Amino acid sequence: MATLFVSDLHLQGEQTPADGLFRRFLTEQAISAEALYILGDLFEAWLGDDLVLPEYQGILDALQVLTASGVPVFVMHGNRDFLLGANFAQRTGCTLLPDPTVIDLYGRPTLLMHGDLLCSDDLPYQQMRRQIRDPQWINGFLTKTPAERIAFARQLRNTSKEEVGRKSDYLMDVNDATLAVYLQQYCVGRIIHGHTHRPALHNLADGSQRLVLGAWEEHGSVLYCDNGGCRLEEYRYEGQGTRGEV
């Protein structure tokens, strides 16, 4: 048995391939796991627990089935679905985690983050993040009509895609100094995060480890951890062949 970690699925509903792939993963792999951790951006957009899009119901049902079977599922907010709340947790049986969170992973303290806080060189993004995570901003957003919230999410998505094409690579990746601050602050020698869409296992000069989850685009990305260590593997669509270690 292993503890599994995923992030950046960006699910948009039953019409998208990633939705079916993730549901298959839940029944084929996660069902036998000790626990599943979803470190942000499970959904492409979550507009509030009071506005659950119909196309998300299949995923909510699948998560509820998994937790009801006895597998603990922990979900961290991402930059796309930071409005996941208590009703989502109750509906699915998942436990919401703060970002950051430290867990004991087979005897080794491990810091879990979505990862966007580590990309501190991207100052406009960090400013926007602080604004939309402010409780006053959130309360105002949740008073808007469904049409207004959907329009905002669409605008934010389009802006994000445009900025990805303009920004330098270093702006969209982890700042090493910021990473070191978090490792020192939480007294850990290992961190697991997503957000950057750059799956890799990094062994740092000081002996620490940075394990980066990939996005679910051409294939899934899953980190398997057990008493023997951690391995990052691809979880493939049907017809793509077997999964391979990264």
Provide structural commentary.
33% of the residues lie in helices and 22% in strands. It is built from seven helices and eleven strands. Strand 8 (200-203) and strand 9 (209-212) form a beta hairpin. Helix 1 runs parallel beside helix 2. The radius of gyration is 17 Å and the shape is globular.
Poorly predicted spans: none
Order of helices and strands: EHEHEHEEEHHHHEEEEE
Mean pLDDT: 91
N- to C-terminal separation? 20 Å
Percentage of β-strand residues: 15-25%
- Provide the number of structural domains: 1
Q: Give the CATH class.
A: Alpha Beta
Q: Supply the helix-strand structural class.
A: alpha/beta
**The CATH topology:** Purple Acid Phosphatase, chain A, domain 2
Q: How many extended strands? A: 11
Overall shape: it is globular
Name the CATH architecture.
4-Layer Sandwich
- Order of the strands making up the biggest sheet: 4-3-2-1-10-11
Question: How many helical stretches?
Answer: 7
Could you give a quick summary of the protein structure above?
With 246 residues, this protein is α/β, with parallel strands linked by helices. 33% of the residues lie in helices and 22% in strands. It starts with a strand and ends in an 11-residue tail after the last strand.
List the helices and strands and how they pair.
Layout: E1 3-6, H1 17-28, E2 35-39, H2 57-68, E3 73-76, H3 86-92, E4 95-97, E5 101-105, E6 108-113, H4 123-132, H5 135-142, H6 146-166, H7 176-185, E7 190-193, E8 200-203, E9 209-212, E10 220-226, E11 229-235
Helix pairs in contact: 1-2
